[in-house]
UniProtKB/TrEMBL annotation:
Record's protein name: Transaldolase
Lineage: Eukaryota, Viridiplantae, Streptophyta, Embryophyta, Marchantiophyta
Source species: Marchantia polymorpha subsp. ruderalis
MF annotations from Gene Ontology: transaldolase activity
Enzyme class: transferase
Function: Catalyzes the rate-limiting step of the non-oxidative phase in the pentose phosphate pathway. Catalyzes the reversible conversion of sedheptulose-7-phosphate and D-glyceraldehyde 3-phosphate into erythrose-4-phosphate and beta-D-fructose 6-phosphate. Transaldolase is important for the balance of metabolites in the pentose-phosphate pathway.
Family in the record: Belongs to the transaldolase family. Type 2 subfamily.
Length: 440
């Protein structure tokens, strides 16, 4: 029999929007105790959980002592539920977490709150490693073993990825390989080197040695063919930095061609997501709309990214249907799910769930930074929205182009900026590690 002492909000996501599923034969009684609630002892029932509900009288004062009153709830079982669970269970969208740092075990509370996977990138690792001393012992050990600084970085990163994969492995197994993935990106310095990307993907895949690993490969023109090759080698891939419909279609084709090239008849163990970036699109398009300055242009601010995303979902539906796909599906192939990336709102004037709530749809993933995750759990609405108004999405997309903002140019610029940003983060991290090594 499980017991929860409930008071306040959820520690897992720092928000109050966590509920417990209904259970039969619930018994509640008021419990008053003295002093710090973390020291409460109720015999075998003294386990504090992360979900609490206050009773009518929260506290009272008896002389110099503070008496706190709570409801002690005893159930045969308690299942914590959030809007993240609803996203997956009701609408078929998998919420992932766009961050990774030590202690990796902290991910357990997010998994309990409904998170079903993790993405990482060079910028995330730069922040994690340079802002924490939890990497220092392993750093010294790897340096003392004679490794170069860049190899030390990969040692640190692979350890984090392995630990995260292990935490998500039960979910991966329970979903039969549908979720529970953790992504590790090849060096951003390989963005223009397709062959080098293939070699690096194989190396990282073998180093991590976990079934629920995604190797992240950028969707540059040079690396799209690498996606085909890596998939044909039966390595699961997260294709990242997709900013345009044209490049997205090329990524889908690379995935399909890779599957078709696999010699093994069973394709069920190969998985992929296509990371389609959203908020960065609005940042750039909004600037150009404001430069145009007309009423029509200004009225489109904050709308372009989600419109393009809706059209990407339509393209996904079209490409993963018909005879070509059906032939692969007979071999057990998995669809390459769309993953909405860059979902943190960068303009404070916009709703904080702008790149989550309008992008809810089946067979998709939304990877969110913590602030976006918390916002959606707190006040997000779960309903299928991604294809609710495709004609309007097409109209917005066409109007942006008609105003002189070429989508091809937007995609090219954002891709170049994304690659450069990750390269800068990677270089800064290596420089920081080198400085630390010089002090040893």
């Amino acid at each position: 029999m499980a017991t929860t002492l409930r008071h306040g909000g959820s520690a897992a996501l720092n928000t109050s929007a966590v509920r417990s599923s209904q259970a039969q034969h619930v018994e509640t009684r008021r419990v008053c105790f003295l002093g710090d609630n973390t020291k409460l002892k109720q015999g075998s029932l003294a386990k504090l959980a992360s979900v609490f509900v206050p009773c009518g009288d929260r506290s009272a004062t008896l002389g110099a002592l503070r008496v706190r009153c709570m409801v002690l709830e005893t159930k045969s079982s308690v299942e914590k539920k959030t809007a993240l669970h609803d996203l997956y269970e009701k609408e078929g969208q998998s919420p992932w977490y766009d961050n990774l740092s030590r202690p990796v075990a902290d991910l357990k509370s997010l998994i309990d709150s409904g998170v079903r996977g993790v993405t990482s990138n060079p910028t995330i690792f730069e922040k994690a490693i340079t802002s924490s001393d939890l990497y220092d012992d392993q750093f010294r050990q790897l340096m003392n073993e004679g490794n170069g600084v860049e190899e030390v970085f990969w040692g640190l990163a692979v350890t984090d990825i392995q630990d995260a994969c292990d935490l998500f492995l039960p979910l991966y197994e329970a979903s039969k390989g549908g979720d529970g993935f953790v992504s590790l990106e090849v060096s951003p310095g390989l963005a223009d080197d397709g062959h080098g990307t293939v070699v690096a993907a194989d190396r990282l895949y073998k180093l991590v040695n976990r079934p629920n690993l995604y190797i992240k490969i950028p969707a540059t023109a040079e690396c799209v063919p690498a996606v085909r090759t890596v998939i044909s080698q039966e390595i699961s891939v997260n294709v990242t930095l997709i900013f345009s419909l044209a490049r997205y279609e090329a990524v889908i084709n690379a995935y399909l061609e890779g599957l078709e090239a696999v010699k093994n008849e069973d394709l069920s163990k190969i998985s992929s997501v296509a990371s389609f970036f959203v908020s960065r699109v609005d940042v750039l398009v909004d600037k150009r709309l404001e430069k145009i300055g007309s009423e029509e242009a200004l009225g489109l601010r904050g709308k372009a990214a989600n419109a393009q995303a809706a059209l990407a979902f339509k393209l996904y539906q079209d490409k993963f249907s018909g005879p070509r796909w059906e032939a692969l599906a007979k071999r057990g192939a998995n669809k390459q799910r769309l993953l909405w990336a860059s979902t943190g709102v960068k303009n404070p004037a916009y709703p904080d769930t702008l790149y989550i709530a309008p992008l809810v749809g089946p067979d998709t993933v939304n990877t969110m930074p913590l602030n976006a995750l918390e916002a959606f759990v707190d006040h997000g609405v779960v309903s299928r929205t991604i294809d609710a108004n495709l004609p309007e999405a097409q109209k917005i997309y066409d109007t942006v182009e008609a105003l002189g903002i070429r989508w091809a140019d937007v995609g090219s610029q954002l891709e170049a900026e994304g690659v450069a940003s990750f390269q800068t983060s990677f270089n800064n991290l290596i420089s920081s590690l080198q400085a630390k090594a010089d002090k040893l």
